[in-house]
Amino acid sequence: MLLVERLGSDTKVYTSVEQVGPILARLNGNVALQRGEPIALRFDPEHMHFFAQSGRALA
């Protein structure tokens, strides 16, 4: 985990995965995480958004 940003009702986790690239995960605000701590993420495809390197949203 590169960065943990607590925003009240949400916690944003910024990380990077080898062969995938950067990932931003929005979690429940009550998650107790520390920078550098290993985490496991599970993704619901219905809630995923993909972006090109240019920042343009992909369909």
TrEMBL record:
Cellular compartments per GO CC: ATP-binding cassette (ABC) transporter complex
State the Gene3D superfamilies in the record: 2.40.50.100, Nucleic acid-binding proteins
Which segments does the entry list as coiled coil?
none
> One Pfam family, short name please?
TOBE_2
The terms under GO molecular function for this entry are: ATP binding; transmembrane transporter activity
UniProt domain Transport-associated OB type: residue ranges? 4-51
Spell out the protein name for this chain.
TOBE domain-containing protein
Identify the species of origin.
Paracoccus litorisediminis
